[in-house]
Amino acid sequence: MAGTKRSAEDSGPATRSAKSAKTDETSTAAKGKKGGNKKNSNKAVLPASQFKAKALPLHVNVTHTPPSAADDDSVPSTSADPGQLGSLTLLPSSFNTGSYGWKGSKRLTVELENDTGTKEKVQVMLTINATVLNSKNAPSEEETKDEANGEAAKEEAKEEAEAETAEKEAE
């Protein structure tokens, strides 16, 4: 029956008996939002200025080999590691996006083995950003001061209104 179209009546069963039943609830896949788990989204976050004042640098060691403790305590494990490529210090910083965390970058030389068995060196630029979750939504230092000033102003206005009410009642 090439070249003929099926009519709407022949399109299949009118009921959903062949399929699973429709439900009013949305599927679990539709419930998930982009961005992962939002459990801690209401957790208070420090203003960027307080973060920078309190945060200490982070240190990262880059190696070809998995981390292992040295057998002898006299030699630091980083210098005992034969696959050690370098180390990097991440400093507390504010990002252009408005969030904050740690960032650092360093040039490293990595040796690669060719097909012929000779070693070849390549330069690598290592850049690491460690962003504090929800820090983009953190209040700025000005906002926290404004909130404190706003609350003080509300209390002052309330006291003035009470004083006026007391004066009117006294008259």
From TrEMBL:
Region (Disordered): 1-90, 133-171
Domain of life: Eukaryota
Residue ranges, compositional bias (Polar residues): 75-90
Basic residues bias spans: 31-41
Biased composition range(s): Basic and acidic residues: 146-157
Name used for this protein in its record: Uncharacterized protein
Organism from which the protein derives: Lentinula raphanica
Organism ancestry: Eukaryota, Fungi, Dikarya, Basidiomycota, Agaricomycotina
